[in-house]
Amino acid sequence: MAFESGVGAVLLLVGRLLFGGLLVFQGVNHFMQTDMLAGYAESKGIPAARFGVVASGVMLVLGGLGIVLGVYPVIAAGMLAVFFLAVTPFMHDFWAVPEEQQQNEMTHFLKNVELLGASLLVLVLAGETWGYALNIGL
């Protein structure tokens, strides 16, 4: 089923803008808040935390742009899925933090699982032609 025109194409565009656009925003935030996020990553025992924050910011920006623009969406969605699979259990380990931090970590853990699910959905849809997209690398 191609999403080249009609309501499906418009809804897919809106979904791509929301999903990919917010991922770009989160990635840019990694660059604007690098020190704070690196400190948080260090507190979780992540080696080379600053590099990890910058690298994850790049992944979020490139993955989000790929989805928004329809540029290599399989690579973009796959990269995001790998990111969420790798990062979520280490950074948001709600089961291993003090009780007063558990709810916050669980919220972030569940958010990331939802984003993983959305990344997998985009990965499946990436084989289709998207309306209102550059459709490069489909």
Automatic annotation (TrEMBL):
The chain crosses the membrane at residues 6-28, 48-69, 75-95, 115-133. InterPro entries: DoxX. Keywords: Membrane, Transmembrane, Transmembrane helix. The keyword Transmembrane applies. It is found in: Membrane. GO terms for cellular component: membrane. It is a multi-pass membrane protein. This is DoxX family protein. It comes from Natrinema salsiterrestre.
